[in-house]
Design brief:
This protein is mainly alpha-helical and 149 residues long. Helix content is 35%, strand content 6%. It has a three-stranded antiparallel beta sheet, covered by helices on one side.
Length: 149
């Protein structure tokens, strides 16, 4: 049996569609900043984890070779035997499963040996979201040493 449709009755009217669009825009306006904050928090956590992983690999490298890679050899010494002096005599790498060169903001991690802060050790850091030294909040540097205020 066929049902007859009444004239003038349809699914959604233009007013209904506009109301739905306004509700979606309001929800997006409320949710988007929260999502962006969580994304930035995740990037900072990833940078901290990378620095910890690199630090462990650097410590193993130093244990095998008697010293950390030079600044010139850089972090690349953790997955390729350095050809720049001082050549490590007991290189047993790679010391990482995969190379880690870039921070979550796609900038190179900064590695300095001997360190400027850790004079008998190395400095390893990311400049954070803004990519420049210093800063607060999401722009704060992520470092392998403890900041003292």
């Amino acid at each position: 049996m066929l049902k007859k449709f009444r004239k003038g009755v349809s699914g959604f009217s233009l007013v209904h569609l506009l109301i739905i669009i306004v509700v979606i825009v309001i929800l997006a306006g409320v949710a988007a900043p929260r999502l962006l904050r969580q994304q930035e928090k995740a990037r900072r956590t990833q940078a901290n984890n990378d620095i910890d992983e690199l630090g462990l690999a650097l410590d193993i490298y130093a244990n095998h070779n008697g010293a950390y890679p030079s600044t010139e050899q850089g972090l690349k010494a953790l997955w390729e035997k350095p050809i720049i002096p001082p050549i490590p005599n007991n290189w047993q790498g790679p010391y990482l499963d995969k190379p880690i060169l870039k921070d979550p903001w796609e900038r190179n991690y900064v590695y300095i040996y001997p360190g400027r802060v850790n004079r008998y050790d190395y400095d390893l850091l990311s400049y954070g979201k803004d990519g420049i030294s210093g800063g607060n909040g999401n722009n704060e540097d992520i470092v392998n040493w403890t900041e003292e205020n």
